[in-house]
């Protein structure tokens, strides 16, 4: 008798490949017809078929059997008849051809082609190239308006079933290649892909891996936008050269996918690689056939005989857009009679640009103005917005009249979201606009420069970036050529301002704003520029220093300025979605209007970082949790503190309201969760069970359960009524930072240091899925209001959107330059907010993944200090991107070094005193000559922010530690990277050389310190013991001890030789951010979040003196070489010099604030809150 069990017959029927294909095509047709091409979700399909989502998924996967009646009803729901070849029994062990995998689609801005006619031959050729010959790169070429975009959409619709993934992207606004590659990689890869490479080359290689692994169809429309006009065909715009490398690699390297691009010009890479038997092809579109062109003429209501219609189609070479435009003229000027138009003998078609020029010349002045504004907006815009832009003001009926005329002329289009232009029309209008603006500024005859903005400060971030790239910068580049130098251009712009002030002071318009945006782009030193008595509209000034600028009696309406908040650790939307609350490291909470980013309230009262903010369900109050150990309740309408809840020992990390608003839960450093009566502030219960810091708490939607998670790597579920622990969920391997329930309460999500998010069933405690893909700690998680997706924020500087049912990563949002600590969905789900310690809040469109708005704080924080060897100069680095040199005796800033593109987080001085090193968030290390201020070289090999640099004692090596988890050793003389030290599993925050230079220590966010041999790169010791990240390491004078300071509020002293921990200093240290040994080795100084500098006796471990206090945390400290002075840098925007012997503060240095000395006397267009922010950032207002 055989031991092999008999195969059991599997019941029911599944779809065959034919059946799956028929159903898939019917579903696609339904989506195009009824859902604007958007994919029907499982819930939509469930509603349509009458089956629950599990049954729907089972039918579509076609792996398990269902009864025949189910398949029959499914087919009927899509208007199909079930045929015998559509289904079969799923016999166990039988080989069967599985249906293709479900196509993931992202149609982006693809146009509707439901009324597409003709092009049958071209479609057949292209589909054969994609499906049968499996070409890797296909270019669809042709003149503007010929129909390339519509044909490409139709091709993609017809071919999508043969691909696993399909993504459509428009290149109309010439998006940065790095951003596009990031989108393509996430979509074409898988949700567990590792963190993205930083450079273009690495991202292209990663994309090619994805294209090999999955069969993808990538469609890139309007590729001509990447190419430079007026030069040899195929020449790329500045900054777009990488696209050529992308095309070359996609065409050359074997893979299973296809990239289709449309363009008016053939890229050189396509020309070099194409061939009739090669995997790279191009198809140049001719005009429409006569019968196809006649469809347009009939639709436009033209009248004429067959010969006349044929002649008209031939005359305009079958170009659809040209036929539509000229048809409008025939209808208006010749009553629709083709014969009369042809009799004029003017029907000469010399290309779409000439036709557009002819049509443009016929426009009224009002129509021209609107054409320019539509090109400036670069996406559909409603009439009311256009009316707000237009100066001088025009009535609403006049605006609508001009728009209707443009519609009749077929120069613009009207959609559900507003009026827009076809790409070829927009490109022509933009080029015409740029040329006219250049002529005006060059000649000093201002017209359009006054009536139109080159950049809209209040536009969505991605639109403003496109305006800068395609309008503002081309204007500047052309004027630099015409005028010969930047100095001459600045002189011309100053003359334009003076002319405007003399001729029409305060006249509404854009002269002042355009000028200021141009100067900011040129990085002109704006100190003492005069904009008084002018309208300065639409100036984008979040990143611009305005030292001493004269805005007296200036109209500053519609400008965007920096805010005065600090590093962001918590964000929350109000229940009605109208407000955003932000808690920062300045100990404040600010409330902004979500619609326009205008600050409404600033709530002060905490004395340390605000770690969490949470609105009550009624939206009238909100809670804040702080590292000062308190929870506060605030009135959201007026910003008044209603109550302070005390009871936790140590920091409070999280706060959450119960759904009915009666309870407030909080958690923190003392390993407890507390329940408070939200009305009275009384502590009702303390829940104990966690064995470490509790980082997050969340109520279930029905209020019955409370979840908590923390440093012990567990999630605990509590009965909210009794406080009893119902379950402990285990599965994460490292601490958990965030926990949240889904809106229906059926899922629980937890985010961890182990770089994963887990989805749990709270009823059973079972882990349903693990979402992997982040490259560092996952610090925050939030469900969308509909529960279908969730968002995560990470220390890898990204936000990810995930589909909750499949666990697929839908999008990776990558514009943050530093770690993301907090995220929150708008109650309607269309917007996501994220906050970062770089004083940044970003608002994202959850559908497109585009960044809509950035709120930028600009308090100038000094992040690093270092003394010169002679002790007479102090060097500082700050988040305003500058390195400053200070005279220690006078406190004067003697030199400012400019060149970094992001904040400077670390500085070091070489032993020779002449060479400086600085590094920061722009991923570069810069070497400077301290005497001349010249940047000698820039070192670029790190792929993450650089947190620490240090020179070896002999100056021959420079070490750097980065967010990419590596330390690098460099030759500072040549800039060559000598070695890369790998081993840490997270950021390296601090590096330090031993006194003899033979050893290097590194401290990391992974909670360990390592000691390396600088000659061999070998890791000699791993020092483990801290329970949280290490911020600083320092060697003792004799090299026998290594000190490490951590955010676990301890300092450890290690024996270098053995790696043994000799002593732990814990006496009220606070979070330790910086360490420094005194030159005699007897004292160890520490700077922490308790706003003080503490001096410790190394021999005894006793705190002998406390210096300060600063008014915010101390991030960097340094001893002068002779030990007589200790410098400290703080988030309070100051540097202080102390006498370590007496504790006296000897001197205080203050960095110029962003708007220091900016004169706002008599300025208008600002709200009281805006003006208060500007004054807090240094602006002045004289009393008249």
SSE topology:
Blueprint: E1 14-15, H1 17-34, H2 42-49, H3 53-61, H4 68-77, E2 87-88, E3 104-106, H5 120-132, E4 137-141, H6 148-159, E5 165-170, H7 177-188, H8 200-213, E6 216-221, H9 242-252, E7 258-263, H10 268-273, E8 280-284, H11 290-299, H12 306-315, H13 320-333, H14 338-343, H15 352-361, H16 365-377, H17 383-389, H18 396-408, E9 413-415, E10 418-420, H19 423-443, H20 448-451, H21 461-483, H22 486-503, H23 511-521, E11 540-541, E12 560-561, E13 568-573, E14 579-584, E15 588-593, E16 599-604, E17 610-615, E18 621-626, E19 630-635, E20 641-646, E21 652-657, E22 663-668, E23 672-677, E24 683-688, E25 694-699, E26 705-710, E27 714-719, E28 725-730, E29 736-741, E30 748-752, E31 756-761, E32 766-772, E33 778-783, E34 789-794, E35 799-803, E36 809-813, E37 822-825, E38 831-836, E39 840-845, E40 851-856, E41 862-867, E42 873-878, E43 883-887, E44 893-897, E45 904-909, E46 915-920, E47 925-929, E48 935-939, E49 946-951, E50 958-962, E51 967-971, E52 976-981, E53 988-993, E54 999-1004, E55 1008-1013, E56 1019-1024, E57 1030-1035, ...
Parallel strand pairs: 3-5, 4-7, 4-8, 5-6, 6-7, 11-12
Antiparallel strand pairs: 1-2, 9-10, 13-14, 14-15, 15-16, 17-18, 18-19, 19-20, 21-22, 22-23, 23-24, 25-26, 26-27, 27-28, 29-30, 30-31, 31-32, 33-34, 34-35, 35-36, 37-38, 38-39, 39-40, 41-42, 42-43, 43-44, 45-46, 46-47, 47-48, 49-50, 50-51, 51-52, 53-54, 54-55, 55-56, 57-58, 58-59, 59-60, 61-62, 62-63, ...
Helix pairs in contact: 2-3, 5-6, 7-8, 11-12, 16-18, 16-19, 17-18, 19-21, 22-23
């Amino acid at each position: 008798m055989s031991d092999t069990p008999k195969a059991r017959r599997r019941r029911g029927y599944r779809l065959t490949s034919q059946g799956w294909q028929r159903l898939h095509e019917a579903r696609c047709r339904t989506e195009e017809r009824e859902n604007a091409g958007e994919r029907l979700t499982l819930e939509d399909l469930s509603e349509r078929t009458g089956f629950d989502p599990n049954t729907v998924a089972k039918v579509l996967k076609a792996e398990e059997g269902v009864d025949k009646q189910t398949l029959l009803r499914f087919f009927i729901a899509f208007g199909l008849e079930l045929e015998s070849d559509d289904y079969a029994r799923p016999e166990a062990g039988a080989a069967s051809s599985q249906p293709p995998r479900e196509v993931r689609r992202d149609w982006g801005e693809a146009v509707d082609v439901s009324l597409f006619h003709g092009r049958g031959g071209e479609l057949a050729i292209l589909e054969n190239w994609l499906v049968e010959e499996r070409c890797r790169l296909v270019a669809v070429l042709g003149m503007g308006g010929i129909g390339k975009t519509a044909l490409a959409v139709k091709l993609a619709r017809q071919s999508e079933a043969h691909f696993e993934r399909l993504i459509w992207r428009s290149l109309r606004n010439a998006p940065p290649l790095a951003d596009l590659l990031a989108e393509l990689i996430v979509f074409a890869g898988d949700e567990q892909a590792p963190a993205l490479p930083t450079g273009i080359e690495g991202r292209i290689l990663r994309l090619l891996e994805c294209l090999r692994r999955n069969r993808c169809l990538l469609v890139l429309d309007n590729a001509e936008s990447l190419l430079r006009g007026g030069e040899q065909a195929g020449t790329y715009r500045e900054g777009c050269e990488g696209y050529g490398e992308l095309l070359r690699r996609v065409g050359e390297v074997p893979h299973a996918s296809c990239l289709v691009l449309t363009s008016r010009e053939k890229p050189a890479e396509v020309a070099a690689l194409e061939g009739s038997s090669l995997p790279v092809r191009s198809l140049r579109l001719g005009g429409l056939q006569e019968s196809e062109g006649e469809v347009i003429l009939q639709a436009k209501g033209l009248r004429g005989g067959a010969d006349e219609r044929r002649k008209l189609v031939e005359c305009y070479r079958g170009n659809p857009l040209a036929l539509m435009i000229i048809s409008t003229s025939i209808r208006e000027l010749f009553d629709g009679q083709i014969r009369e138009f042809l009799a004029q003998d003017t029907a000469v078609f010399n290309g779409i640009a000439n036709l557009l020029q002819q049509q443009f010349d016929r426009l009224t002045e009002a129509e021209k103005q609107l054409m320019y504004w539509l090109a400036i907006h670069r996406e559909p815009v409603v009439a009311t917005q256009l009316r707000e832009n237009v100066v001088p003001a025009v009535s609403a009926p006049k605006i609508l009249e001009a728009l209707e005329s443009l519609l009749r002329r077929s120069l613009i289009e009207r959609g559900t979201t507003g009026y827009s232009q076809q790409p070829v029309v927009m490109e022509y209008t933009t080029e015409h606009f740029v040329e006219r603006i250049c002529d005006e500024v060059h000649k000093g005859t201002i017209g359009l420069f006054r009536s139109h903005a080159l950049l809209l400060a209040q536009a969505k971030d991605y639109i403003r970036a496109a305006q800068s790239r395609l309008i503002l910068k081309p204007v500047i580049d052309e004027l630099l050529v015409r005028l010969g130098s930047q100095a001459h251009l600045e002189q011309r712009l100053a003359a334009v301002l003076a002319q405007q002030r003399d001729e029409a002071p305060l006249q509404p318009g854009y002269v002042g704003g355009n000028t200021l945006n141009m100067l900011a782009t040129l990085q002109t030193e704006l100190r003492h520029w005069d904009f008084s008595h002018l309208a300065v509209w639409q100036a984008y000034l979040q990143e611009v220093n305005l030292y001493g600028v004269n805005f007296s009696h200036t109209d500053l309406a519609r400008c965007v300025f920096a805010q005065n908040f600090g590093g962001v650790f918590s964000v929350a939307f109000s229940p009605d979605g109208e407000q955003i609350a932000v808690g920062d490291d300045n100990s404040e909470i600010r409330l902004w209007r979500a619609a326009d980013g205008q600050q409404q309230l600033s709530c002060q009262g905490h004395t340390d970082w605000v770690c969490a903010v949470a609105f009550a369900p009624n939206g009238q109050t909100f809670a804040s949790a702080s590292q000062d150990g308190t929870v506060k309740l605030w009135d959201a309408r007026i910003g008044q503190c209603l109550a302070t809840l005390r009871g936790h020992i140590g920091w409070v990390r999280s706060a959450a309201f119960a759904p009915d608003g009666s309870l407030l839960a909080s958690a923190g450093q003392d390993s407890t969760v507390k329940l408070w009566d939200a009305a009275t502030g009384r502590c009702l219960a303390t829940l104990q069970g966690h064995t470490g810091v509790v980082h997050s708490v969340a109520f279930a939607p029905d209020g019955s359960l409370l979840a908590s998670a923390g440093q012990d790597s567990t999630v605990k579920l509590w009965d909210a009524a009794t406080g009893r622990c119902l379950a402990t969920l285990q599965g994460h391997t490292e601490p958990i930072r965030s926990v949240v329930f889904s809106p229906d309460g059926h899922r629980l999500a937890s985010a961890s240091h182990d770089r994963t998010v887990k989805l749990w069933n709270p009823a059973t405690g079972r882990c349903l899925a693990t979402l992997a893909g982040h490259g560092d700690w996952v610090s925050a998680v939030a469900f969308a209001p509909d529960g279908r997706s969730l968002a995560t924020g990470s220390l890898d500087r990204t936000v990810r959107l995930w589909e909750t049912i499949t666990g697929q990563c839908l999008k990776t949002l990558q514009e943050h330059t530093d770690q993301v600590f907090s995220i929150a969905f708008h109650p309607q789900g269309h917007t996501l907010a994220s906050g970062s310690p770089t004083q940044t809040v970003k608002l994202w469109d959850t559908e497109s993944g585009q960044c809509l708005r950035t709120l930028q704080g600009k308090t100038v924080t000094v992040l690093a200090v270092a003394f010169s060897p002679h002790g007479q100069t102090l060097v500082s680095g700050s988040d305003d991107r500058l390195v400053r040199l200070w005279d220690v005796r006078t406190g004067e800033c003697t030199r400012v070094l400019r060149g970094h593109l992001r904040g400077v987080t670390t500085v070091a001085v070489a032993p020779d005193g002449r060479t400086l090193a600085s590094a920061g968030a722009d991923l570069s290390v810069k070497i400077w000559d301290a005497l001349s201020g010249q940047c000698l070289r820039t070192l670029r090999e790190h792929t993450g922010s650089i947190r620490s640099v240090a020179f070896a004692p002999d100056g021959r090596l420079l070490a750097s530690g980065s967010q990419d988890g590596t330390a690098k050793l460099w030759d500072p003389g040549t800039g060559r990277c000598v070695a890369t030290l790998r081993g840490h599993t997270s950021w390296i925050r601090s590096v330090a050389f031993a006194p003899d230079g033979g050893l290097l220590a590194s401290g990391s966010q992974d909670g360990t310190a390592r000691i390396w041999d600088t000659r061999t790169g070998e890791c000699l010791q791993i020092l483990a013991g801290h329970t949280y990240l290490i911020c600083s390491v320092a060697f003792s004078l004799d090299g026998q001890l290594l000190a490490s300071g951590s955010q676990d509020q301890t300092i450890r002293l290690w024996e270098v030789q053995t790696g043994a921990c000799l002593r732990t200093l814990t006496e009220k240290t606070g979070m330790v951010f910086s360490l420094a040994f005194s030159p005699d080795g007897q004292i160890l100084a520490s700077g922490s979040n308790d706003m003080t500098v503490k001096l410790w006796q190394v021999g005894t471990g006793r705190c002998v003196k406390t210096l300060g206090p600063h008014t915010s945390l101390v991030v960097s400290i340094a001893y002068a070489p002779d030990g007589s002075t200790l410098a400290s840098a703080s988030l309070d925007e100051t540097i202080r010099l102390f006498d370590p012997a007496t504790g006296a503060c000897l001197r205080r240095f203050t960095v110029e604030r962003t708007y220091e000395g900016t004169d706002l006397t008599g300025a208008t267009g600002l709200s009281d809150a805006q003006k208060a922010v500007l004054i807090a950032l240094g602006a002045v207002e004289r009393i008249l």
